[in-house]
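In the previous chapter we treated chains in isolation. Here, by contrast, the input contains three separate entities that must be folded as one system, with a combined length of 1112 residues.
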Amino acid sequence: MPFINALRQYGIFLAFLLICCFLSYASSQFLTISNWTIIITQVSINALLAFGVTFVIITGGIDLSIGSIVAVAGVVAALLATQPDLPLIVSILGGLLAGLVFGLLNGLIITKSKIAPFIVTLGIMTVGRGLALILSKGRPISNLSDSFNFIGGGDIFGIPFPIIVLVIVFIISYLLLKNTVFGRYVYAIGGNEQAAWASGINVNKIKMAVYALCGTLAGLAGILLTSRITTGQPNAGAGFELDAIAAAIIGGTSTSGGIGTISGTLIGALLIGVINNGLDLLNVSSYYQQVIMGAIIIGAVLLDSWNQKKMAS
Amino acid sequence: MKKVIFLLIAITFFSCNSSKNSDEKKIKIGATMLSMQNEFIVNIADEMQKKADELGAELIIVDAERSPLKQIEQVESFIAQKVDVIIMNPIEFEASSPAVTKALAAKIPIINVNSATSATPTAFVGSNDVESARIAMKYIADKLGGKGNMVMIHGLMGQAAQLQREEGSKEVLKQYPEIKLLAQQTGEWDRAKSMDLMQNWIQSYGNKINAVFAHNDEMGLGAVKALQAAGLKDKILVISVDAIQDALQSVQKGELNATVFQNANQQGAGAIETAVKIAKKQAFEKDVLIPFELVTKENVGGYLK
Amino acid sequence: MFQNNILTLNNISKSFSGIKVLEDVSLQIEKGKVHALMGENGAGKSTLMKILVGLLQADAGEILLEGEVISGLSVHAILGKGIAMIHQEILMVPDLSVAQNIFLGKESHRFSWLNASEINHKSKQILADLKLNISPKIKVKNLSIADRQMVEIAKAISNKAKVIIMDEPTSALSEIEVVILFGIIESLKNQGVAIIYISHKMDEIFKISDTITVLRDGKLITTKKAEELDNQSLINLMVGREISELFPVTKIEVGKTLISVKNLGRKNVFSDVNFEVKAGEVLGLAGLVGAGRSEIARAIAGLDKIDAGTITIDSEETQFKSPLDAIRLGIGFVTEDRKALGFIPQMTIKENFSLASLEEFSKMGFVNTKEEIKSTQIVYNNLKVKASGLSQKVINLSGGNQQKVVIGKVLMSNPKIIIFDEPTRGIDVGAKFEIYKLINTLKAKGLAIILISSEMPEILGLCDRILVLSRGKQMAILSKSEASQEKIMQYAIH
């Protein structure tokens, strides 16, 4: 179990188990395979975004543009998927490329201009939303090819395709952050950028790669979303960046950089999904759902600052 | 570079001037729309433009981006530009009201299109949202024979359309005490959100659900997707409101059972026609109510583009 | 003997998570005297001082100021009673003026925020009493580190402090500034202020202290009059073992020139610097703070761009665009600014060690953890890092061990040339000695070494040649035989 290694997430993992225990006691449907298939499918899009943004936050940055990138990539993929003579791979690559381009743009501006990532990605967020509206002429794009709709709606041996995508991306991100030189540099930059630079790390190159990765994952999420709702929506993904950032933070990623894990982020995303699902099962009003979610985010950050204090003393 | 910019400014300036001169007698209409990111509103706006071109009126369409404050400011600038008539597609019942008062105070006629404000405008062109829910719920009641279980997917809570559609459905539910509302929750007008919600409901209620009423088509289509995935679509009715193209296609395929058509074209065209009448000081109807129409597989052909 | 006692600490004990850091420590501090507190890092000096000023609470024991019990009071209350501390890391608000900082926290009592002229006037007086030529209106962020230190002292005086604690006050000061500081201490003594002085620099201790207390492993070893001790006996007390020779001399045959620098310049910082260092040679860079020593080091290590001149490595002229270029060509840089440039605090010792050489332990981008552990363990053992193991986070280490981590990281990148910038700043005698030995070992292995130090004995003891700088200009290069403390100072203050 990779979770065990993530000692930092111990607290949040415990909270996750407690909530699951409570929900399986309160609702007999909660702890069924079919319900968990649904939870993980619902979580997959947020988790993909959260994995990307975890890399960014660990370098000490932030990416607010991912929600808009979801829309742009979704619209691009949808436009390509309405062309019957184009193979499926073209629309997938188109969506991923759109995400990559936006990610590179973020990285380029952040590393070249030294403007705070918060501001750069806020700007790109608006640009992306506008571009999605321009490309789609403000209207949803439907009548996508069946093969395209399989990505979000189909299954292989009974496992929904989004879950398969999630598992693959999880494994890749996990290995990338934990076992590669790149991952080590990501932590180093977030821990102390100046020292990382003085130790011979090409800080700008790594940052570019991190934003590009985050953008590409947002592109992938956009493709999944578009295929799941079988339309390319220019307004899709609004507010997704906040859910993704919340998942990363709940999972123990420190907003001051240098700390965080992919497995923690997965737990964070699952926690959000489980709470949404459980409260729906119990027919709790969405008003209360929002209050509960906010309390959990603050609790996670408190845990983080408490951990940091303990580390400093 | 500077020279180029100067040239551009000069050109814009002169072209503005010339158009002003030649169009002196043209009727000028200013329109502020709720959000040009919403397909239904875009349809109204497109129809307005078509009608204005047809009647030879000059139409300025601006997007209030769901901000009531912005909408008021846009109406203020229309007043300053001295347009002949203002058309407003209000964002909120109360918050957009001051715009009406301001226009009337400046003696510029103002028409509300699609939804209402608390202040009374010169004219109203639109449909009564309560009615749309009544039509949908009556359809469910008929199909279920007045007895069964249903769930309701709300729009964004607190918005006029959500409130009125809730009002209409509660009205009908009172008439049919044997129809039980098992659960209700917001889907925030969003297809993916409503799909998640429906999946979760299927977990808790499964076969018990007989019908779903969604406040708009996006959410209705989300519910249809979730039910299809669970293999329950054949057993459960789904109806929603708006009759967007996606929904019509779905009705044609026999997936979505019915949608309620709100006639964007007639609303758009009606608004411009009323505006032109007012400007020409001709007689006009104060309340142009465009009726809703139930769209099922039988009559969907007439609505598909 | 102690009839002039102003401050008494009785049987102070303190533990952190079960580990005793102070055990039954008792001290008497006299009015108008300088009481030096000596001990290796981790001996318990800082903890004792934190308890004294109320930042920490003792587990047992009491503290009396002029017969009144003050232990248990808040930091603010103790400050009000007249105990002030000049911190090792200076705590001031950089965007406020000198005067505002001096009166920070007291505005509401005597001077309102708005009455700028009054606090400016008062500050000017205090600064003048200290013979300091600092304008009270200047923002603290525009002051040199030395001047900031002086302002801290002024702040303590404005608090009418009866006891002033100085924790390594000279670590960032040049020789001249140290002389000024000692003048201030002398006048404070005359006013009856008691001073508790913490420093690792032996010569300072004997110059100014009246009484010396030695702590070791949380226990009080002895309190003696300064004249009863000498350099060697004091070190023995602190370390608990004999250090026969601080600077073991090693004779090495020098090899070929590894680095040569010609007409090196950086606008407004330094200009026309020329030197070369051969294999097996140590070149010292001496000068006052601000003479441009660290800046030259930064330029050679690729951290700053140069505006003029050339750097030749192994008879090949080079241009550095980044530290990476310098590391690739075999330059290692042990920075003076450990915290900002040296290490990644949240990372483990292992990860810091391998940071500059990670690509050597990787295949297809993946880190070969086995190889990494094997190599870092060797460095860990060689440098005698005191920690729970390779996976301890660097943030939890003492200053000396953090320095070893920085050095280890540099060594692992296999440099031919190493620049040590103040390698022994803020670390204890035992660790210092180990670094001296290391420099000699590296020299014997045929590396070229550039050493920057503000401690004359280090420069004189370790270097084969000494380049003296003054205000960014190269004044002289002295050979070991012609160099002396006086001669270096003569060039440095030129």
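Residues 286-312 of chain A form the longest helix (27 residues). The interface with chain B takes residues 27, 29-30, 32, 34-35, 38, 41-42, 45, 133, 138-140, 142-143, 153, 225, 228-231, 233-236, 276-277, 280-281, 283, 285-287 of chain A (CB under 8 Å). Compare these points with the single-chain example from earlier in the chapter.
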